[in-house]
Specification:
The protein has 8 helices and 11 strands. It is α+β, with helices and mostly antiparallel strands and 298 residues long. The protein has 2 domains: 2-166, Ribosomal Protein S5, domain 2, CATH 3.30.230.10; 174-287, GHMP kinase, C-terminal domain (Alpha-Beta Plaits, 2-Layer Sandwich). It has helices spanning 76-88, 110-125, 132-142, 186-192, 212-219, 227-233, 235-246, 271-275; strands at residues 2-6, 10-28, 34-54, 59-64, 93-99, 154-159, 163-166, 174-179, 251-254, 261-265, 283-287. It is globular, with a radius of gyration of 19 Å. The strands form 2 sheets. Strands 1, 2, 3, 4, 5, 6 and 7 form a 7-stranded mixed β-sheet that branches. Helices cover 27% and strands 30% of the residues. A hairpin with a 5-residue loop joins strand 2 (10-28) and strand 3.
Length: 298
């Protein structure tokens, strides 16, 4: 979380997206979730959330830039507030404005980062005194990706997402994100994985990396398990990967269960030239990997 402004009764937070530099699905668990092994990296694409305490209990959520998103009880922001209010007997409410910049259902954890930002904001505004680990535990009750956002922005993530291990890897590279607007359900993506997930396989171990070239070399040893099912069903994803590589990307990969793809560049690419290669209604942006501290600074 990146705290931009804080007062006694309000806080402004930029909540970052994440990409999966690699993603391995190890096995299906008895509780219905899946054990994963993945390298998460926060990136400089942000949702912006304004939180203000209100004397009345409950939450009022306004969403800017996305009219299709629900503001009801199924929204992770609303769920996060109610979890905190019930767990800590909070009588005050929150007025929240979300400026939505991260594409929805895109493999970038846009909903999870907003839910995590809400837990962080509640902790600050209601003076709960929760540690990062305690906030991460609360986040895990809401969704598998939330615990990551209470770390440093670079983590090996295991279990169903609740096991977050800080890593230090190079971040001096450029990223291009391309989302062709294909709707891919995470649940359906798991179903489409052809192999039997009841049997575990050995987790991939990232080699120690001091440079971007070493990082890419290590990442080339393992990809994203969802690519095998998504690229076959959506040929345009393969075309995007090809264009990124043709324009100098050191690595092109899908994030999460898709459909967002990213390219890693050692130097800033010619954005205008690259953007012309993609359809006008596709979401396209250039970002950088970021890290942050527990107090919300970069």
């Amino acid at each position: 979380m990146l705290v931009k402004k804080i007062t006694n009764n309000s806080i402004l937070i930029d909540a970052p997206a994440k990409i999966n530099l690699f993603l391995q699905v190890l096995n299906r668990r008895k509780d219905g979730f899946h054990n994963i092994n993945s390298l998460f990296q926060a990136v400089s694409l942000f949702d912006r959330l304004k939180f203000q305490i209100t004397p009345e209990s409950g939450v009022s959520l306004k969403i800017v830039n996305n009219k299709s998103l629900s503001t009801g009880s199924d929204n992770l922001i609303v769920r996060a507030y109610h979890l905190i209010a019930e767990r800590f007997d909070i009588s005050s409410g929150l007025k929240i404005e979300l400026t939505k910049n991260i594409p929805v259902a895109a493999g970038l954890a846009g909903g999870s980062t907003d839910g995590a930002a809400t837990i962080y904001a509640c902790n600050q505004l209601f003076k709960l005194g929760l540690s990062s680990d305690q906030m991460a535990d609360l986040g895990a009750e809401l969704g598998s990706d939330l615990p990551f956002f209470f770390g440093s922005g670079q983590s090996l993530v295991r279990g169903r997402g609740e096991m977050v291990e800080k890593v230090e890897i190079p971040a001096d590279y450029h990223l291009v994100l391309v989302n062709p607007g294909v709707a891919i359900s995470t649940a359906e993506a798991y179903v489409r994985l052809k192999r039997d997930l009841t049997f575990s396989k050995e987790p991939f171990n990232l080699a120690r990396c001091a440079t971007v070239i070493e990082l890419v070399k290590s990442l080339n040893n393992y990809g994203n398990d969802f690519e095998q099912v998504c690229l076959g069903q959506y040929p345009e994803l393969g075309r995007v990967m090809g264009e990124l590589l043709n324009h100098g990307a050191l690595l092109a990969r899908m994030s999460g269960s898709g459909p967002t793809l990213f390219g890693i560049f050692d130097k800033a690419p010619d954005i205008a030239q690259l953007k012309n290669r993609f359809s006008g209604d596709w979401h396209f942006c250039a970002v950088r990997p970021i890290t942050f501290t527990q107090d919300g600074s970069t």
